[in-house]
Amino acid sequence: MKQKIAVVTGGNSGLGYATAKKLCDHGIKTYIIGRTKEKTEEACAEIGVNALPVIFDLNNLEGIPAIIAQIAKEGNIDILVNNAGINAKKELIDVTDEEFDAIIHTNIKSVFSITREVVKIMKNHGGGNIVNISSMASQYGIPKVIAYTASKGAIEAMTRAMAVELAQYGIRVNCVAPGFIKTKMSAKALDNDPERKNKVLSRTPMGILGDPSDIGDAVYYFASAESKFVTGTILPVDGGNSIGF
């Protein structure tokens, strides 16, 4: 069988890294798109031969078509994981238009642009799988992340719209909504804010933080034939946080 090809944005750390590793471990050639050359190349070296670095800033929307065309020269892109995103913690009244726009640009516009270009490839090769990454911020209200919340709400709505429009081409589109996952970034944020950490754990029925591999496993499910009759869904991987009391 021909080796499958995947593209994972922001795959050089955290949830993206775990996702890229999961795909690579299952024999999928995975292009990891990252802005930082050293960090992205180190991640690929750690993951193994199936991981290939692509140094590119997704904020450069004009450059996305050429990057995807370059990858597509190696064959059909079977899987796209839209993981890259940015956040900023700030009270709503202090967020400037420029700060709001920066998050929308990275978290929505770049996702749309790269998806559009990959869909062109997938249509010509009989289909594929797209997995978007959302957040608990889209499941319920979280203070001080208004722009991030807006962007992730849009991602979930786009997932449904894409799934309906692209099903006719054999392209499935799904979304994983991570809960509170144990990463370096989240550990730093929660450990410095005991009240927030206690709140997170108290409303999570399973009472623990998730592991990045939990997200990788969920993405792999959507990207594999195991979910061949599933499209347009939002899957919280959160230990029950989104329905916690």
From TrEMBL:
Keywords: Oxidoreductase. CDD domains: SDR_c. GO terms for molecular function: oxidoreductase activity. It is an enzyme of class 1 (oxidoreductase). Pfam families: adh_short_C2. Its EC number is 1.-.-.-. PANTHER family: 3-OXOACYL-[ACYL-CARRIER-PROTEIN] REDUCTASE, SHORT-CHAIN DEHYDROGENASES/REDUCTASES FAMILY MEMBER. Belongs to the short-chain dehydrogenases/reductases (SDR) family. This is SDR family oxidoreductase. It comes from Mariniflexile soesokkakense.
